[in-house]
Amino acid sequence: MRAAPGRGPPFFFARMPGAYFPEFRVTDQSTNRTGGVLGFGGAWAMAVGGMIGGGIFSTLGVVISVAGRYAAISFLIGGLIAFGTGHSYSRLTVARDAPGGSYGFLRDLGHVRLARAVVWTLIAGYVLTVAVYGFTFGAYAANAFGAPAWAAKAASIAAIAIIAGVNLLGARQATIVELVAVWAKLLILLGLAGLGLWHWAPERLALPAHEAVGPLGALAGVGVVFMAYEGFQLLSYDYDEMKDPPRTISRAMAWSIAATTLTYILVAIGAPMLAGADQIVAREEIALAEAGQAALGALGFVLVTIAAVFSTASAINATVFATARLAGGAAKDGELPAAFARTSGSGVPHVGVLVISALAMVLAIIGGIEQLVEGASFVFLLVFALVNGIAWRQRVAHRWMSGAACMAAIASAVVLVLYVTGGI
Description:
Layout: H1 26-29, H2 40-52, H3 55-67, H4 71-96, H5 101-108, H6 112-144, H7 149-169, H8 171-198, H9 216-225, H10 245-275, H11 277-282, H12 287-296, H13 298-332, H14 350-366, H15 369-393, H16 399-420
Helix pairs in contact: 2-8, 2-10, 2-13, 3-9, 4-9, 4-10, 4-15, 4-16, 5-6, 5-15, 6-7, 6-13, 6-14, 6-15, 7-8, 7-13, 7-14, 8-10, 8-13, 9-16, 10-12, 12-13, 13-14, 15-16
């Protein structure tokens, strides 16, 4: 752990229980590191790519089936939880001035066993997430060509394998892929949402009478859809890859979450107005392709399919990129097998990239979209609640945001369990 410039010795949480983290000021804590390749644009793209990548393409149909006409409210509440959690992650990461995320925060506090459990849980969650992205990529690609189910699985494997190869080339190549993919999908998604809003038809947001849900569905939808906001916290693992890390991570987290939340809300309103909520649910694996076809015929179908391919590819890229670095750091601490700490000549933790990608391929083949989404959402709600709790306990600046996000994440996890078990 490094000392933050101008702040004296490093913070050791274990020696200072409940220590107060001085409020971050850009002018005081900016560093002079020049080795990083991620500036604000690259970091913002990595975070947006990690969230939107599987988010709206994988979960829109699922959340509408749960929340109905209130799906946009589910995305809004989820975005508020994510924003508070992003505040906690950025403050804690800047205070320790080193990568690590929830795993690193717990080790600093002296909770080594819990940190070990969390890092394994996180890796499992990220593998599930990459599997969702791969599954979605395969579904859209196969649908575009009218190919059979086996072709969708083959496309899933190919996408994960190719992006793993990009990651093995190094951080600079991964960042270039992310910037191109993020802007391409944002333009297409916002264009689709704009067309839906132009054809204003609020009656199409409702499910058929026998499938209708009430306002409580919006709360259940938060739990089901929360995997769509996984991704911003990956920046805490990429801290050493950034230019001027304290400034970059704080700005990139806030702006990426804001951009993602706005995009989700607009698409959750616009897409059903084009295709109808019932059709979005019926074709949940390729829901936005249906909306694109309803808007612009074959052209809309092709554009949305292209966006889905770019989107899921960028999400796989961002998630594998950061998770391999998380595993590498934990391996250096002796919490994971030493092989995960091995790096290639270009500094890439190649064993982590290969293992994470291989496990995700298996799950993409054997898993269903709803089970993968719900499992990943539950994992991240619990981990984010934990990080918010740490931030509140450590008295970060504006700790009320961390406390509110902690309580909301716990409540959403409980509602998700009740929904999955038939309690609501």
